[in-house]
Amino acid sequence: MAKTPPDISNEQVREEFFELQTLLWAANREYHTQDSPSIADADFDAAKRRYLELVDAFPEFRKVATQLSAIGAPVSDTFAKVTHAVPMLSLANAFDDQDIRDFDDKVRRYLGLRDKQVLRYTAEPKIDGLSLSLRYENGILVQAATRGDGETGENVTANARTIADIPYRIEDAPTVMEIRGEVYMSHADFEALNARQAEAGNKTFANPRNAAAGSLRQLDAAVTRPRPLRFFAYAWVELSDSLADTQIETIERLAALGFRTNPLTRACDGPEEMLAHYADIEAQRSMLGYDIDGVVCKVDDLALQRRLGFRSTTPRWAIAHKFPAELAWTRLEGIDIQVGRTGALSPVARLAPVTVGGVVVSNATLHNEDYIAGRDADGNPIRGGKDIRAGDRVQVYRAGDVIPKVADVDLSQRPEDAEPFVLPTVCPECGSDAVREEGDAIRRCTGGVICPAQAVERLKHFVARGAFDIDGLGARQIEMFYRDDALPIREPADIFTLAARDASSLSKLQNRDGFGEKSVENLFQAIEDKRNIPLDRLLFALGIRHVGEVAGKDLARHYLGWEPLTKALDKARPAALAWRMADAAEATERDAATAEDRRARIKEVRDAAIAQCDVPEDATAAWNDLIGMDGIAATVGLSLSGAMANAEERAAIDRLAAELAVQNVVPRNTASSPVAGKTVVFTGTMQKMTRAEAKARAEALGAKVSGSVSKKTDLLVAGPGAGSKAKKATELGIETIDEDGWISLIGDA
């Protein structure tokens, strides 16, 4: 990914951060909840690494880094929910040999071990399947639950009982025993299942992981029963009696109790043996008969595991050493331009079909015009400065069933007549100017709602999962309705008037391909069911740039309802406009002593610009309240305010809102909380908990967490390195405590 720009005032850095945050949330939801990932594991890992780099480089991003604590995704409403007695955490990742050596070094330093003292680990294949927790009481399987979001999973007990590898009854088992492992499907079984599905005219699966997840998460266990699911046990979290003293011995006990365990699990003395076993497993990968995406390494001694404990989302005693993405060479036949819902012109490589990692691919993303030209966002060379041209022989990589990326170019194979690629300066869909703003890596169509490509993509986003998720109204149907003159859907509100318009047209829809009387009835009912929508999902569904699922939730928790939100945005509009006009002033303030001082100075300059514009005091207060929210930076505020200020877009949003019953957010019951209703700001370094943990705890106790100090601030929690925020709090007479004071204040509340 691109090198971090040297200054947070660079708009591109802020945009990248929030785009990564939205991408990571969506990817988690697709993988864990929908069993339909659209991003490769390697791409997800790279995005998360970049996200962490930005959080480490710029402290102000830590206040909105709730993505780091995300494990899995929210559970589906289809199944009963199960609260895990012990959270199902994810693992930290290693991507090269040095990461494993660093892992060993950190474990040693934490435990205070001598450099030459051998520390034993276990190493086992990381199965690419669906995590499952099994609870046994008195030797009987009483509950099976998926990971879900790590805290709450789905009850799939009836389905788990159909899997031959999962014992229903265990002799001589501890009274209480919770076992965890991975449900998967072998390659041979997957191919046979898809053959049966195709023969029966049913949907086939994209890969074994999706097949396993879809089979386990069936409402009817009779559907799961004939599916060839398998299970490897690899962990335990709750035992009334200990099984053994080490990880490897406990795995052996699990096998003796009747669980299937992975035969490639090995005990390793130190990092070099772990790396050797990793290489051995990687060499066998193609011959295993099931999918793995790395090797999991764990401290073997269980007493040491307990001493090491956990970070907020990962154990300190384990790490996942991931396999690299797979590569292949092919010919780039052409470069097409796709226009997205925010107007972004995205170049896509049209490839001569090539098999990469067992999947035939014919398209690859080319990111943006800088990437094609062979430079990063700062103008530094990438790929040795080699540009990409139609006709080139290119190397592509992937690690899943998604569009791959172009990694390299073989200049020795470049045709003599190959021309440098130039991204168009007009939109290929509507002819509007395509503009690349300063600091932006992307060229965007300025057509807005008049651009059919943007309109269609925004409608697709609107009905997608995570947004309105309307059964029977997917991407294919949206394209059909958008181009239909009799029953058009050109904006979201049209979806909710479709039934009335169809009735007035004597049910023309029933005469279309794919629509019969029953399917029309089901579609209209599905649309009707979605009129009642949570505020955060509506905000995400609108497709406003930078307003992803996380920002939608933050805004909903802050404003509690649609009407208070829109009134606040309308009130803040003059201040938002003045703030935007002050962007030029920001560039002159980059030489302040520290990053925090610079940010404070930038805000002073912009506040001064607002004052010079004679912005009403209540508008300034509303704007500061919006961008002062923890998780909502000025980038998000400007995008949201701009959308609501655009006459055409606002009219479309108002027409939609008139068709809906937007659910207000019900505040948590925090009667006993010492910080309920208070506005809290965290600054400086948190040493005993992460900033994300502190924010989550404060919000759970009914506090509002803000990113800036103002007259409305009730409490400042200041750690080492606190700067201008602590100074301003003192000037305003705001109560200030340190981290120990914060922990003492909230106690066990």
Brief account:
The chain is α+β, with helices and mostly antiparallel strands and 749 residues long. Residues 1-9, 66-77 and 584-593 have low confidence and may be disordered.
Present the secondary structure layout:
Elements: H1 11-32, H2 41-57, E1 81-83, E2 93-94, H3 97-111, E3 120-127, E4 130-137, E5 140-146, E6 152-154, H4 157-160, E7 176-184, H5 187-199, H6 208-216, H7 221-224, E8 230-239, H8 247-256, E9 266-269, H9 270-284, E10 292-299, H10 302-308, E11 318-322, E12 326-339, E13 345-356, E14 359-365, H11 369-373, E15 393-398, E16 405-410, E17 434-435, E18 444-445, H12 452-463, H13 475-482, H14 492-496, H15 498-504, H16 517-529, E19 532-534, H17 535-541, H18 549-559, H19 562-581, H20 583-586, H21 595-612, H22 617-627, H23 634-645, H24 647-658, E20 661-663, E21 679-683, H25 691-700, E22 704-706, E23 715-718, H26 724-732, E24 735-737, H27 739-746
Parallel strand pairs: 2-11, 19-20, 21-22, 21-23, 23-24
Antiparallel strand pairs: 1-6, 3-9, 3-10, 4-5, 4-7, 7-8, 10-11, 12-13, 12-15, 13-14, 15-16, 17-18
Helix pairs in contact: 1-2, 3-9, 12-13, 17-18, 19-21, 19-22, 19-23
